[in-house]
Amino acid sequence: MEKLHYDYAVGLSTPYWIQEVRLKGKLYWSFQTPISLPFIGIGLVSGILIFLLVVNPLIFILKEVPFIPVALCTVVPWKIGKLYVEYEPDGKKLHHYLYGSLRYLKDFGWDSRAIYGQQRRKEVEQKIVFEKTRL
Asked: Where do transmembrane segments lie in this chain (predicted)?
């Protein structure tokens, strides 16, 4: 009988989920359904960036409509975090897909050197001169 080995890659690739926030045994926050850690991280980062880059410079305009800053700093980061966690282009996680796309753009979009012998080489323009010969 063959031994079956456990594939640890399945367990290591699953996201880290949070349902309760406890510090020193005291319950501070409890979510009804578990939330993934990347969702929280991306939501916080995008919320802070939106607050710093959009809400602060436009505060004099946004004072007239009070729900817009709240929507910008809560709903938009929630949607960005949800998109980051749930959307998988080409079967990859979003950060792997974006990294691969940026690498492809850097290697083939912006680098105009030719590939010759598996190396990038700058094309040397040589002037070809044809001479007439008499036979």
From this structure: 35-62
